[in-house]
Specification:
There is one protein chain. With 724 residues, the chain is mainly β. The protein has 2 domains: 97 residues, Immunoglobulin-like; 494 residues, Maltoporin, Chain A. Strand 31 and strand 32 form a beta hairpin. It starts with a helix and ends with a strand.
C-alpha cells in the first residue's frame, strides 16, 4: 500500500512540473524595431514589466489557453492568446504600434525642433492629458489652477478686490515669464494680472513650460522662462467637448470646443462664457471674489493648399467685466458709508495667421503674423486709469534637417504701443527686430547639444526719453543619456527685458501716482538649469521616476518702484542684482497605470541684493510641497486627492506670514460620452481672513493687505461634461 501511495505522489509531482510553463516575451516598437522598456504585461492576475532590453518572463503558468495583455502609454494596447506549452520555442516577439492620437502629445513645439521630449536637450515640462482634464474640472474659466498646482510655478494674486493674478517661475516676478498661445506672444504689458485669467483650458492639447533663460528662442521677457499654451489641432474625426460647471461661490461656466476636417479644410471653435457673483466669505461686507462676466469666442480655419502647404487663420475675442469692493456698491446700493469699489473692464482681440510649407526630410518654412489689441479700464472712487494696447508680431522661421543636425533660424519683428486715455502721460511704444540661429546636434545616441544665438535691436520710447539698445544672447544646453534609465540636462544663457511700468507692484496701486519712465535701461540676465532624470521599475507593475533640477538666475539693472518725497512712484535701475537660486524635486510612482502618486518639492532662495537688511523677495515661500494621489480607470472613473504646503513668506512691510497646508479632493464618473464630476477645493477652508482681515479701515477709503493666502476659502464645484 505504501508503494502505491508513493507512486501516486511521484506521478502528481511529475504532472505539476509538466504544468509549470515558462514564457518569455521581447517587446519592440513596430516601426523602429527597438526594444520597449516599461511595457505592462498581464496574464490573469499576474503582472510584469519589460526590462531595458524589452524582455519579460512569466514562470509557473499552467497548461492550456492563456490570454496576455500588453499596454504602454502612447502605444496601441495588444491582447493575444497562446496555448501552453509552446512548441518548438518558449520566446515570443511582440511588435507594438504607436497610437496616432497620443503621438502628438509627446512632440515638443516650444524648442522649435518638433522633437520628442526624450530627445530634446532643453528641459521642457509638459502638462497634458488627464492633468489638463482634472484642472479643467476645478477651474473651467481659466488656467490659473493649472499653473498654481505645478511644481516651481506660483500664481500670485495682485489685488484683493479684482482677483488679478500673475504667474511666477522660480520666484521671479511675472513680467519675466513669456506667455505664449500656440507660439504667439500676445500677453503681458497692460494685460498684466489679467492675462492668465483670460486663457481658458478647454481647447488645450498640452502646456509646455521651459524654466530658465529662453530669450534666445523668444526674445525679451523670457528671463525666467516660457509657458506655451498649445491648442488642439483638428483631425479627420469630428471632436466635441462641452462643459457645464457650477460652484457654491456663485460661479457658472458654460463652454464648448468643436473641431473637425472635411477634405482640405479643417476647423476648430472655442466658446466659453463665465458668470461670477460677488462672494464675501468672511462677512466683512467686502468681496473676496468680484462680480464678473467673461466670454471668449475663438474660431480657427485650416486650409490644405496642397499636400505640403497649410494655412491657418484665426481670431480670438475676449471680453471681461468685473467689479469688486464694498458689497453694497456691487449690489447698486451705495450710500455715504458704502462707496469703495474697483472695476476692471477689458476687451482683447487677436488675429493670427500661420503659413507652413513642408519639404523633404521634414524641413519646413513657417510664416507667423498676429495683431492683438487690448483695451482696459481700471476704476476706483475718484480715479481711473485706462488705455489701448496694440501689439504686432511677425516671424519667418525655417527648420532644416541635415544628418545629425537640426538647424533653426528665424527673423522676428515685434511692435508694441500703449496709448493712455484722457491723457498721454504714460504713452509708450517699442519696436524690436532680431534674428536667431539654433543648432541641435545629435553627437551620438547618448549626447545631444542644442546651441543658439540671438541678436535683437530694440527701440523704446515715451514722452520723456528715447532709448536704443542691442542685445546679443547666446544659449547652450546639453542632454546626456547615461543609460535607458538615467539622463541629465544642463545649460544656460542670457536674457533681457525692456523697461515697462506694467509690473506687479504698479498693478497693486492701480497705476496711481506712477511717474513715466525716465532714463532707465533694459534689465539683463544670466541663468541656467541642470537636472538628473532617473526611471526604473521597482517591481512588477510599479514604476518610479525622479527628476532633480537645480536653477540659478541673476538679473542686473532690475527695475524697482520707489516712492519719492512728494508721494509719486518712480522706477529706477538697481545697482545690485536680483538673484534667484534653488532646486526642484519631482517624484512619480505609477502602479499598473491606474494608481499614481506625485511628489513635487521646490526650494527657492530669491533675494534683491540692492536692499539693506531683509533681502528676500516678498510674497515668495522658500519651501513648497505638492502631493497628488490619483486613481483612475480609463473611461470609467477617476479619484484624486491633493495636498499642498506653503512655507512662510515676507510681506512688503517685512512682516513674516505663517506657513499653511491646503487640501483638495475630486471625483469623476464617466458614462459613455457623459462625465459627471465634483471637486472639493481647499476643503480645510484655508484662507487669509482666518489670520487677519484683508481690508483695513476706514472702509470708505480702505487699504488692503498683501495677498499671501487664499481669499475665497473652501469651494465646492461640480458639473457635467459631454465628449463626442
Amino acid at each position: 500500500m505504501q508503494k502505491i501511495l508513493a507512486l501516486l505522489a511521484v506521478m502528481l509531482f511529475i504532472g505539476n512540473v509538466a504544468a509549470q510553463n515558462k514564457v518569455s516575451f521581447t517587446v519592440k516598437d513596430n516601426a523602429s524595431k527597438l526594444p520597449l522598456s516599461g511595457v505592462n504585461i498581464q496574464c490573469k492576475n499576474i503582472f510584469t514589466n519589460t526590462n531595458d532590453n524589452g524582455s519579460a518572463v512569466f514562470d509557473d503558468l499552467s497548461d492550456g489557453w492563456q490570454v496576455f495583455t500588453f499596454t504602454m502609454k502612447g502605444y496601441v494596447t495588444i491582447t493575444d492568446s497562446f496555448t501552453l506549452p509552446l512548441f518548438p520555442v518558449d520566446s515570443i516577439e511582440v511588435l507594438m504600434e504607436i497610437e496616432t492620437d497620443d503621438l502628438d502629445e509627446v512632440i515638443i513645439q516650444s524648442t522649435r525642433t518638433s522633437r520628442t521630449i526624450n530627445n530634446t536637450p532643453t528641459r521642457v515640462e509638459t502638462i497634458d492629458g488627464e492633468e489638463l482634464d482634472e484642472k479643467n474640472n476645478m477651474r473651467p474659466a481659466n488656467v490659473s489652477m493649472l499653473l498654481h498646482e505645478s511644481t516651481g510655478l506660483q500664481v500670485q494674486q495682485t489685488s484683493a478686490t479684482s482677483g488679478n493674478a500673475s504667474i511666477r517661475v522660480q520666484g521671479l516676478d511675472g513680467r519675466y515669464t513669456q506667455l505664449l498661445k500656440n507660439g504667439y506672444p500676445n500677453f503681458g504689458n497692460f494685460a498684466s494680472g489679467l492675462s492668465i485669467l483670460e486663457i481658458p483650458p478647454l481647447d488645450l492639447k498640452q502646456v509646455e513650460v521651459i524654466k530658465g533663460p529662453a530669450s534666445t528662442l523668444y526674445g525679451g521677457g523670457a528671463i525666467a522662462g516660457v509657458v506655451n499654451f498649445i491648442s488642439k489641432y483638428p483631425k479627420k474625426k469630428f471632436e466635441a467637448d462641452f462643459i457645464l460647471n457650477q460652484s457654491n461661490i456663485g460661479q457658472t461656466n458654460i463652454g464648448g470646443y468643436v473641431s473637425g476636417k472635411k477634405g482640405k479644410v479643417g476647423y476648430s471653435f472655442l466658446g466659453l462664457i463665465n458668470f461670477q457673483k460677488a462672494f464675501d466669505v468672511d462677512k466683512d461686507n467686502f468681496s473676496e471674489i468680484p462680480k464678473s462676466k467673461n466670454f471668449t469666442f475663438d474660431p480657427r480655419v485650416f486650409f490644405e493648399i496642397n499636400p505640403s502647404t497649410t494655412l491657418m487663420l484665426g481670431n480670438s475675442f475676449t471680453k471681461n467685466t468685473n467689479i469688486g469692493g464694498d458689497m453694497e456698491v456691487i449690489n447698486n446700493q451705495p450710500d455715504a458709508t458704502h462707496v469703495y469699489f474697483e472695476k476692471n473692464n477689458s476687451t482683447r482681440n487677436t488675429t493670427t495667421l500661420e503659413l507652413n510649407k513642408k519639404f523633404n526630410n521634414d524641413d519646413n518654412l513657417t510664416l507667423k503674423q498676429s495683431i492683438a489689441t487690448y483695451e482696459r479700464e481700471i476704476s476706483i472712487p475718484n480715479y481711473s486709469f485706462s488705455g489701448y494696447n496694440v501689439n504686432s508680431f511677425t516671424e519667418l522661421a525655417v527648420v532644416i534637417n541635415k544628418n545629425k543636425h537640426t538647424f533653426n533660424a528665424g527673423l522676428n519683428l515685434v511692435f508694441d504701443k500703449f496709448k493712455q486715455r484722457q491723457t498721454n502721460i504714460q504713452n509708450t511704444q517699442s519696436f524690436t527686430g532680431g534674428g536667431y540661429f539654433q543648432d541641435t546636434w545629435d553627437v551620438s545616441d547618448q549626447l545631444k547639444i542644442e546651441s543658439g544665438l540671438r541678436m535683437d535691436q530694440a527701440i523704446y520710447q515715451n514722452n520723456n526719453y528715447n532709448k536704443y539698445q542691442i542685445f546679443v544672447l547666446p544659449r547652450i544646453y546639453g542632454l546626456y543619456k547615461f543609460s535607458n534609465k538615467l539622463s541629465s540636462r544642463i545649460g544656460g544663457g542670457l536674457g533681457y527685458k525692456i523697461p515697462t511700468i506694467f509690473t506687479e507692484q504698479a498693478e497693486r496701486l492701480q497705476y496711481q501716482d506712477i511717474l513715466p519712465l525716465s532714463d532707465v535701461t533694459a534689465e539683463r540676465s544670466i541663468g541656467g538649469t541642470a537636472d538628473l532624470n532617473y526611471k526604473t521599475n521597482i517591481f512588477n507593475g510599479l514604476s518610479f521616476t525622479i527628476n532633480q533640477m537645480f536653477f540659478y538666475t541673476s538679473i542686473n539693472n532690475s527695475l524697482v518702484l520707489e516712492e519719492n518725497s512728494s508721494g509719486g512712484n518712480y522706477f529706477y535701475n538697481a545697482n545690485s542684482p536680483v538673484i534667484s537660486k534653488g532646486f526642484e524635486t519631482n517624484l512619480k510612482f505609477i502602479y499598473h497605470e491606474d494608481l499614481k502618486f506625485f511628489i513635487g518639492y521646490t526650494f527657492t532662495d530669491a533675494r534683491a541684493t540692492y536692499l539693506k537688511g531683509n533681502q528676500f523677495l516678498p510674497l515668495l515661500p522658500k519651501n513648497k510641497l505638492n502631493l497628488t494621489l490619483m486613481y483612475e480607470k480609463e473611461d470609467n472613473f477617476k479619484l484624486g486627492l491633493e495636498g499642498y504646503f506653503t512655507d512662510k513668506q515676507y510681506l512688503f512691510n517685512g512682516i513674516q506670514t505663517p506657513h499653511f497646508w491646503e487640501f483638495g479632493f475630486m471625483a469623476q464618473k464617466t458614462f459613455n460620452k457623459i462625465s459627471v464630476f465634483i471637486n472639493f477645493e481647499n476643503f480645510t477652508d484655508q484662507r487669509q481672513s482666518n489670520y487677519k482681515a484683508v481690508v483695513n479701515p476706514p472702509f470708505t477709503n480702505p487699504t488692503f493687505d498683501d495677498i499671501w493666502n487664499h481669499t475665497e476659502g473652501f469651494v465646492i464645484n461640480g458639473g457635467i461634461k459631454l465628449k463626442f
